[in-house]
Every structure is written in C-alpha cells, then in structure tokens.
Specification:
about 325 residues, alpha/beta, Rossmann fold, Alpha-Beta Plaits, 2 domains, six-stranded mixed β-sheet, four-stranded antiparallel β-sheet, about 35% helix, binds adenosine-5'-triphosphate, binds magnesium ion
C-alpha cells in the first residue's frame, strides 16, 4: 500500500531581521508508512514545528511538497487535510468551558452535530481517560489533562494521520506516561499513523517505529531506534565527574591501553567553566562498560584522582546525536 505521508525536498525560508532569507527547514525528505509512529527528534529550533506547519497545510513551503494519502498538500489541500489532524504545540482550548463543551465546540466546527457528535465526544473522553472529569472547566485542569483534551480535539474528525507536536512538554511524569500510552493506542487500536515530535530522547526511543533526527533544519539521521544506535557502535559511555581537578594525559593513556574493553578515554576540564566550580569530567568509551568500571576506579584512585560521581550510559539516541553533531541533545 502507498505510504501515508511522502515528503519531498521540503524547505522553508523566513525573513531574518536583516531582511535576508533564513532557512528554518532546508530540504527534508521522509516517508511515513500507514500505522507507523514516526518521530522527529531534535533540539529547540531544529525545525520540527515548521515542518509540521508545511505538511499540514498551515505554512506554504518555500520549496518542495508533501503527499498525504495520495493528495498533494500544496495542490490538493482540501483532500489532504481531510485525512489528518494536528495537535499543536500550544494548548488551544477555551478555559471557561468544560472538557466536554470544548470537544463539542470543536466538533461543531468540523460539521458534527446531534447524536453523532455526542457519540464521538463520549468515545474520545473515554479514550483519553477523561470521562470522570468531563464536566469540569479546563481552567481547573493540570497541564497534562489539558494536553489530553487537546489530543481529544485532534481525534474528532477521525483522522487517519495525526501530527503531535511536543505533546509532553511541561507535564508531570504520570501524565506524560498517559500521553505516551495514548499515542501507542492510536496506532495499535485505531491503526492511525502518527507523526510525533519531541526533544526528549527517552520517549522517542520508547514509542517510535522510526525516528528522524533533526538539527538546523535538516534530517541528519533516520532509521529505527536500533539502526540509529548501531551507527554509534555498541560501546557504553562512562562519565566520571572530577570537579576542578586536572587530569594527567598519561592516566588517560593507561586507561585506554591497560583496561580491557576501553577504546577511548578523554578529559574535558570544564563543562561549565574553568577553575573554581568547574565541572570537569573523564569520559571513557568501553565495550561492556560495567565490567570496565572497577579497574577504572582503581586506576583513578591510584593516581590520586577523586571521583565525585560515576555514570554509565548505554548507547542511546543521545549518543547518536552527540556523535553526529558534537553537541548534547539536552538543553
Ligand atoms: N514565523 C517565523 N519567522 C521567522 N523565523 C521563524 C518563524 N517560525 C520559526 N522560525 C525559526 O525557524 C527555526 C525553526 O523553528 P521551529 O519552531 O520549527 O523549531 P522546533 O524544532 O519546533 O523548535 P522547538 O523545539 O523550540 O519547538 C527557529 O530558528 C525559529 O526561530
Ligand atoms: Mg516546535
């Protein structure tokens, strides 16, 4: 069957403060299969929202096109839009109306009414686990509950495809869990196609069938989580915080040559400024990092290096981003 979404060389330029074109998205290309959860993972300003804007018909591309269920978003916008729904990054609800009233209001905008509207609203309240709070005003809801209503609005038109732009930002872990479960159920119970965006590696890693890592308006890597992680190899990353201490390069060389599994040992004197309050760290890449840990600690002790903390990071999407950009994905 044809793909649900085909994005061809999509680009968007905005006018910068000096009047020159600044490309927020510079030629992205991807395909999303039906009933797939596809994520755009990238830091602030990567171009995720701008991409969603273009493939949902809200923003006119400077270049390129997206084909949604066979319809071009630039040339057959009406047909394409009927298949989709967008859950925006910003909450767009009426605070003084209840959850049910909000859903009914947006349902009428979609042309629903009568028994059909009531049925859909009931289903959505049930699906988003809000039935018992349905008659409370939105202004009394937590951020996480508002997000769930926001998602509910996106389900009113029974879309085949839903875009969810950072739906877990600023909500507590319990509500985040519920949002993630909702996303999985959209795929598993409703066979929907989901485009999900986030700058949080853990959740993208958990829910996505495939991931595109975005940075500065480009997709810099794409694949299943497993495929992406394979690109950085299977080495664990061991991070030893050493504070203001300076580290002798000879110690790093010994770690690298004398301890089984270690491939690289590096020292960064100041993640956050040098001198007093510096947050220096030794980073060691090792196969089977946990077994390399005890001899590394012994070696550091013998060299009179005090270790303030030790962290073992298994290969993850964070490591993929770090490997490709030299920067951490976290803020
Ligand atoms: N209307 C606009 N006019 C000018 N520049 C814009 C406009 N919208 C977005 N940009 C710029 O485009 C770039 C990409 O922004 P975008 O909102 O798509 O990123 P994002 O990946 O969604 O980031 P975030 O995680 O912060 O939501 C940013 O540098 C942003 O400042
Ligand atoms: Mg955004």
């Amino acid at each position: 069957m044809a793909a649900m979404v085909e994005v061809h060389d999509l680009a968007k330029a905005f006018k910068g403060s000096d009047g020159a074109d600044v490309f927020a998205v510079q030629g992205v290309q991807f395909t999303i299969a039906r009933s797939e959860i596809y994520s755009l993972l990238g830091p602030n300003g990567a171009g995720k929202t701008t991409t969603i804007g273009m493939i949902s018909g809200l923003l006119k591309p400077t270049r390129g096109d997206a084909v949604i269920g066979g319809f071009s978003i630039t040339k057959q916008a009406m047909d394409a839009k009927k298949l989709m729904s967008v859950v925006p990054q910003e909450i767009a609800l009426y605070p003084t109306l209840t959850a049910r009233q909000n859903l009914e209001f947006f349902g009428r905008i979609f042309g629903l009414g009568g028994a059909e509207l009531k049925k859909r609203v009931d289903e959505i309240l049930e699906f988003t686990d809000l039935t018992d709070r349905a008659n409370e005003k939105i202004e009394k809801f937590s951020g996480g509950m508002k997000r769930r209503v926001n998602i509910g609005v996106g389900l009113l038109n029974r879309p085949q495809l839903i875009y969810m732009d950072e739906p877990t930002v600023g909500i507590d872990p319990q509500n985040r869990r519920r949002v993630l479960d909702t996303v999985l159920r959209l795929r598993d119970e409703m066979q929907m196609t989901v485009l999900y965006t986030s700058h949080l590696m853990e959740e993208v890693q958990e829910i996505s069938d495939r991931v595109a890592i975005m940075d500065h308006g480009k997709i810099i890597a794409e694949g299943t989580v497993g495929q992406l992680i394979q690109t950085v190899g299977e080495e664990d990353r061991l991070i030893f915080k050493v504070g203001e201490q300076q580290i002798d390069p000879a110690l790093l060389a010994r770690m690298q040559t004398e301890i089984a599994g270690v491939t690289r040992a590096m020292f960064d004197p100041a993640e956050h400024g040098e001198g007093a309050g510096a947050d220096g760290a030794i980073t060691v890449y090792a196969k089977r990092g946990r077994s390399a840990l005890p001899p590394l600690i012994t070696m550091a002790n013998d060299a009179n290096v005090e270790l303030f903390s030790v962290e073992v990071r298994e290969p993850d999407l964070e490591a993929v981003f770090l490997n490709m950009t030299g920067r951490a994905l976290r803020d």
